[in-house]
Design goal:
The complex is a heterotrimer. Chain A is mainly α. In chain A, 69% of the residues lie in helices and 0% in strands. Chain A has four helices and no strands. In chain A, α2 runs antiparallel to α3. Chain A is flat and about 75 Å long. Chain B has a single domain, classed as Four Helix Bundle (Hemerythrin (Met), subunit A). Chain B is elongated, with a radius of gyration of 22 Å. Chains A and C meet through α4 of A and α9, α10 and α12 of C.
């Protein structure tokens, strides 16, 4: 009876999501240094893919619908990449503080 | 000229199996799902703009961000993650229950989803009031920012209120959408025949969950 | 108005009018218009509203140009001047250019071109018009209350503390964004799901491809603008100072997010125009396009590359040199796709039997001005040159060549091209040609001197200027009045034709495109019966069946060859 109402994919996705939630919470108490953010985001990405694929059933949809989400993700990646590239490679601005005396050369 | 040739689709009402300009219900369901997914793409980029700002300010002020994340209400935030995850499981189950023709079960599952949505908002407001008590307000206002003067603190907490607030608005809209669909199920207008309408509402609810899945590690964990 | 080209009446015209209700006369009450879900009527609603906004923006533009008649204050004080150019930009960009072709002509012809009865979500489509009007009214309220003086770009930190009605205006623009998104979603879903069965992607009219590319940009870029405008709104309204350097904020981040939308927004304006050009060029040269696929795919190419170029607005903002170089190179890629289109159109014309009608004259104006604007665009994409030209009249002239020379002439070409389809009436061809010529001449006289001014160092948005610039400013101001005269004549010609124009048959231009295979004006659900799309949309080698055929025999009559 329950097999009619709830396909396996939903049950297992639910179990996996709870497990990943607990794992991420547990790992946050471990000092991973700079890797902590990466690990947390990777776990988040896995969770998001599970929800999108099996709860939102994108895995069973035709390609144009997948493309909608993929292109949104691609544009977001472009936005963040080119914005962050600016901040990472920016020189210290050659500006003097407000009303500072002119530099003597 | 005359209104004699007036044929509005609305005149036929909800009894019609599908809207007049579609060939059949299957095409209509497909169109509405595609429309929803494209709308979700816009939602991704709406939050995406804020995520880009978060990433940029984190690159510039790593110390202030690390300190602020540590200061944030980790337990409440993590609890809320669980609440939303379970609500997502419930609404996914509701979709399958309705498809299987078990309307009553579907109605209960949607009700549970909405209840968890309210629980999320309740926990969120406890969290906000706790931050207000600590003197943290958006825009770098409050005693907290007197003690922590460096740049980066106002940015973090403004983004925190802005992004979680926008997310809370989405949760509220999601609850409204689910309430509307629940009314349809209870009144017998939304059944396994046109269950794609619940799909649409559920997909929106899941998206709200997915956004929180990313907000949680950024603001509370790492 | 006796100068109409004689049109052979089709058999349809012999029927009594009452026997063929059209979308216009099926219901005539105001209520039936305000609650319509018919995509054609929604297109007309948009047309009427944006033309009003365009006139308003035009008045602001004329006021700005009049102010520059003399080097010193002429008409207004400096603060009024600041408000004028800001409002001119805001109204023209968000109330006119963004919705122009997609919301008006896209709404009107896209479903017909696909053989559909309507767009996928008709009620949302109507909602988009109401949302647009609500946002526009809020913007106009801000103009009446205290105006805005930040420039249409709303750059912080100034926009964060300007005392003018910045939050109101931003809220209006924010709301208009929703209507843009709804239109985009509607067009994408319509193109995917509502095509007549058997109509494949590569058989669609090229305007559909252009609108599809436009919709992708609308859907993916607009939300980012919404987010950033919301932040500035809160900054100004509540004093958050999120982009204020005094508290560690970075105004350059605003510019990143703003231009992530606003640069692709240029393609929201120009891509539909390109679609119109493809339709007009093939119809009036009676020939298939030189390369259908190249034009179709380059529309998607522009839509994609448009997202990679936003940084070229920020070369002097303090952005890193690495990013500036990357954006400079990426920006030049747009020229490749644009050039593919321009070469295709000219080659289409070359082998065709060209008949120079008003829409085609506007398209010639488009080609000339767009190439001019595009070439100067490649020049300003080079960082070394842009440092000199940035924030001068050179840039003002460049983007007006694209936005007015490209998007506006495309809009006017579309208006004249589909006017018979929308109304069933024909305007005076000779006066149409005259107005098109005046628009072109006036535009060129207005903006060409601005290239010279900018190159000589005249900064944009300045109230006064040194006396040696007066001659060029004088030419520019005179040009603006020629442009206005052309537009006013065009308006009179079309309004006159609306009432007294010669009735036309279904296909006065002899086009093969699908929207001409139904009556003019079309019936409520676009086609009386299942439309026949057997003959391709650019196939001029065989006659159409029945009454929708070209009244003229094939091949074209000699007098049609200009």
């Amino acid at each position: 009876m329950s097999s009619v109402a709830f396909p396996r994919s939903v049950t297992w996705t639910g179990v996996a999501l709870i497990a990943l939630w607990l794992a991420s919470f547990g790992l946050s108490f471990v000092d991973l240094g700079d890797a902590a953010l990466v690990v947390a985001l990777v776990i988040a990405a896995v969770k998001a893919v599970l929800v999108v694929a099996f709860f939102m059933e994108l895995a069973y949809e035709p390609f144009p619908m997948k493309l909608a989400l993929l292109s949104a993700a691609a544009m977001l990646a472009i936005l963040i990449a080119l914005m962050a590239a600016d901040l990472v490679t920016r020189d210290t601005p050659p500006l003097l503080p407000y009303r500072a005396p002119a530099p003597q050369s | 000229m005359t209104t004699a040739t007036h044929h509005e689709p609305a005149a036929i009402g909800h009894e019609a199996p599908h809207l007049e300009h579609f060939e059949d219900l299957e095409k209509q369901a497909h169109a509405s799902r595609l429309g929803m997914w494209i709308f979700l793409a816009t939602e991704v980029l709406l939050f995406g703009g804020a995520f880009a700002l978060f990433a940029s300010y984190q690159v510039v002020f790593p110390e202030a961000f690390r300190y602020s994340i540590h200061h944030n209400a980790k337990l409440l935030g993590s609890l809320n993650t669980g609440v939303l995850l379970v609500s997502s499981i419930f609404v996914a189950a509701a979709v399958h229950a309705l498809r299987g023709g078990r309307s009553k079960l579907a109605a209960w599952l949607v009700t549970a989803t909405m209840a968890l949505g309210f629980a999320f908002l309740g926990i969120k407001s406890i969290e906000y009031s706790r931050h207000f008590a600590e003197g943290i307000f958006p825009g770098g206002v409050g005693s907290f920012f007197q003690e922590h003067r460096g740049p980066g603190f106002p940015e973090f907490w403004t983004l925190y209120y802005g992004m979680t607030g926008l997310h809370a608005i989405h949760v509220t809209i999601g609850i409204g959408v689910l309430a509307f669909l629940l009314a349809g199920i209870v009144r017998g207008k939304l059944t396994h025949v046109n269950s794609h309408r619940l799909d649409i509402g559920a997909i929106y609810w899941h998206l709200v969950d997915v956004i929180w899945i990313f907000l949680w590690p950024l603001f509370y964990l790492a | 108005m006796t100068t109409l080209a004689p049109t052979v009446p089709s058999p349809r015209d012999a029927l009594p009018k009452a026997a063929q209700p059209t979308y216009l006369n099926v219901e005539t009450t105001l209520r039936s218009w305000l609650l319509t879900t018919d995509h054609k009527r929604i297109g007309i609603l948009y047309l009427v509203s944006i033309v009003v906004f365009f006139a308003l923006g035009g008045v602001f533009a004329l006021a700005i140009r009049l102010e520059h008649l003399t080097p010193n204050p002429t008409l207004m004080d400096a603060m009024t001047y600041n408000r004028m150019f800001t409002l001119h930009g805001v109204v023209m960009v968000w109330l006119f250019l963004i919705p122009s072709i997609p919301a008006v002509f896209g709404n009107f012809v896209l479903p017909i071109m696909l053989g559909a009865k309507d767009v996928a979500f008709p009620r949302l489509n109507l909602a988009s018009w109401y949302i647009f009007m609500a946002g526009s009214i809020i913007v106009l309220v801000s103009t009446i209350s205290s105006g805005i003086d930040t420039g249409w770009t709303f750059y912080p930190p100034y926009s964060s503390y300007s005392n003018t009605a910045v939050p109101t205006a931003l809220f209006g623009v924010f709301i208009i964004g929703f209507s843009t998104i709804i239109t985009g979603v509607n067009f994408i879903v319509t193109t995917h799901t509502m095509r007549k069965s058997g109509l494949r992607w590569l058989q669609m009219p090229l305007l559909v491809w252009a609108l599809y590319g436009t919709s992708i940009i609308q859907v993916l870029a607009t939300p980012v603008l919404g987010m950033v405008l919301l932040l500035v709104m809160l900054d100004n309204g509540l004093g958050w100072g999120f982009f204020n350097p005094a508290t560690g904020g970075d105004p350059v981040l605003f510019q990143h997010l703003f231009w992530f939308y606003s640069h692709p927004a240029v393609y929201i304006m120009i891509l539909p125009s390109m679609g119109v050009v493809s339709e007009v060029v093939t119809t009036f040269s009676r020939k298939n396009p030189f390369s259908y696929k190249a034009i179709a795919y380059s529309s998607l190419g522009i839509a994609f590359v448009g997202f990679l170029t936003w940084g070229h607005h920020m070369f002097v903002s303090g952005m890193s040199k690495f990013d500036a170089g990357a954006f400079g190179i990426l920006s030049m890629l747009v020229a490749i796709f644009s050039a593919i289109k321009v070469f295709n159109w000219t080659w289409t014309l070359k082998g065709g039997a060209v008949s120079l009608k008003t829409p085609l004259l506007y398209v010639f104006a488009f080609l000339f001005l767009f190439v001019f604007g595009g070439m100067t665009g490649v020049a300003v994409a080079a960082t070394s040159l842009d440092v000199h030209w940035h924030d001068t009249y050179f840039v003002v002239a460049h983007f007006h060549f694209i936005m007015v020379g490209g998007a506006l002439t495309g809009f006017l070409a579309a208006l004249h091209y589909w006017f018979p389809k929308m109304t069933g009436k024909m305007y005076s061809e000779r006066l149409g040609l005259l107005s098109a010529a005046l628009v072109f001449a006036g535009f060129f006289a207005t903006f060409f001197p601005q290239f010279l001014l900018g190159n000589a160092g005249m900064p944009r948005r300045y109230f006064n200027y040194p006396p040696q610039f007066q001659v060029l400013h004088l030419v520019s101001t005179s040009g603006s009045w020629i442009l206005a005269a052309g537009l006013i004549i065009a308006a009179i010609v079309l309004l006159y034709a609306l009432k007294w124009g010669h009735p036309v048959g279904p296909n006065p231009w002899g086009s093969r495109s699908f929207e001409w295979r139904t009556d003019s004006p079309p019936p409520k659900h676009n086609f009386h019966r299942e439309p026949n799309f057997d003959v391709g949309t650019y196939d001029y080698t065989q006659p159409l069946l029945g009454k929708y055929d070209d009244p003229r025999p094939l091949p074209p009559l000699p007098q049609d060859v200009a």
